[in-house]
Predict the 3D structure of the following.
Amino acid sequence: MSNPTAIVAEDEDPQRKELVRMLAELWPELEIVAQCEFGAGALEAMRRLRPSVAFLDIQMPQISGIEVARAAAGRTSIVFVTAFDEFAVQAFEDGAIDYLLKPVRQDRLRKTIERTRLHLDNPKDISAVLLALEKRLLEASSPRLRWITAGEGASIRLVPIEEVVFFQAQDKYTRVVTARGEAHIRRSLKDILPELDPDIFWQVHRSAIVRVTAVQQVRRDEDGGHVISIAGRAETLPVASSYVHKFRGM
């Protein structure tokens, strides 16, 4: 019998590496066939590799762990990784999906491995649990951002979200660019993203979030990667390979 396989999808690099390390120690026969930073990569790995187990961060940029889990179609045992305790109670009580709370503890992971091993050959139908989880996520989602508060010297400037063209990570700050100028704020892209309307703003790179209607063109650069041109601006923004699929058909 061949060894079980797994994918690990977690957008925080240190937490992903630590989970992989603990799995290697506690479940040495498990073969990690893919480590994914974004939901799109995890979705592709799920479809291509059909792993025995998938350890999925529930909340990943653009494509959630719930969406990735749907691609399992009864072929893969799912373990969700979450920082939110409210998602780890009622929706998991029937045992169809196991969960790990961040930061993942070794004793909890050991129990999860024991339970997961029991139904490797016969993954359960998790469609009802996924629907319940999705509802809980929607109910707990952050309110939409309406204003960006940016400091300018001794004063404070309010930037309406309707004016923002893109956000760009820049050292310890986030650059907020509008058609009329720009400002810098001390909030990370990861902090801002959940408060933005996903139909209006897309994360296109770990360093950039862009207003979709401001995208003028998507093209390859000299290094074979992708960049986007923004209407009314000379500069371009990088597009990570895991996000290129979003622009197909535009």
